[in-house]
Write a structure and sequence with these properties.
Order of helices and strands: EHHEEEEEEHEHEHEEEEE
Largest sheet: 6 strands, mixed
CATH architecture: 4-Layer Sandwich
Strand order of the largest sheet: 3-4-2-1-14-13
Helix content: 10-25%
Structural class: alpha+beta
Distance between the termini: 7 Å
Radius of gyration: 17 Å
Length: 281
Amino acid sequence: MRIISWNVNGIRSMATKDKNGIKGENGIKGENGIKTLIEEYKPDVLCLQEIKTQNKIDLEFLNFTYILTNVAIKKGYSGVALLTNTKPEWVSYDMGKSVEEPVEPVEPVEPVEPVEPFMTEGRIITARFRNIVIVTVYVPNSQDELARLHDRLKWEDQLRNYLKVLKKENAVPVVLCGDLNIAPEEIDIHDPKGKKMTAGFSTVEREEFKKLIEVGFVDSFRHLHVDAKYTYWSNFYKAREKNKGWRIDLALVSDKDIISAADCLTDFKGSDHCPILLELK
């Protein structure tokens, strides 16, 4: 199985850009970076974050049979999507219990006290397939001066408990992929010095990430690679041109033995993130 995840930073904007991030005159009818990604890599599941739309029709040009979305109440903000040609056995939205209908969102029953306001921001979709459970997520940013750290830690605790439930209740591997807004190790950021209080690399956030690893999840890219490779670059100071980036888009797997490939597809532009790839045996 091949899974690709990409924080597109606005699906409607990305629909007008080619693989190099250059806007074309023909929009979605012309050469398109996401369609090129699909054609080149042929993912079984495509996970998108920050789609920034309430309208599923904005993703129909990608031509998948099942287009699952979880959107924010606030227009033009956040939102995640999971696209596939294989009908899931069940789907849930946010951190609710599973529901049967994989096409249209329904109101899930929350297993635990929901974290507000994150549960109105369209941040998570879970889909169960025959041999795997896939969770795509857009983790909240702790913001400047860690202003939202308290809420972020509540989110991390609930997500970790939710994943433990998924592992317990499903006799198949669980994959968590998306923009996790965390650079786990110093190698995952171009300049770690002096950033121990910076959102996405703070000591407390990285300690929380370690707790997720300790409950049985493996960082697939770091499991296979020892080199530095990034998935996010600031839009300022020519950060991408100078490769001053962060690796914050991750694919975690509950069974390391099924990981066959993991990579950061840095050739694809148009967003301040690049796609990540995960292949499973």
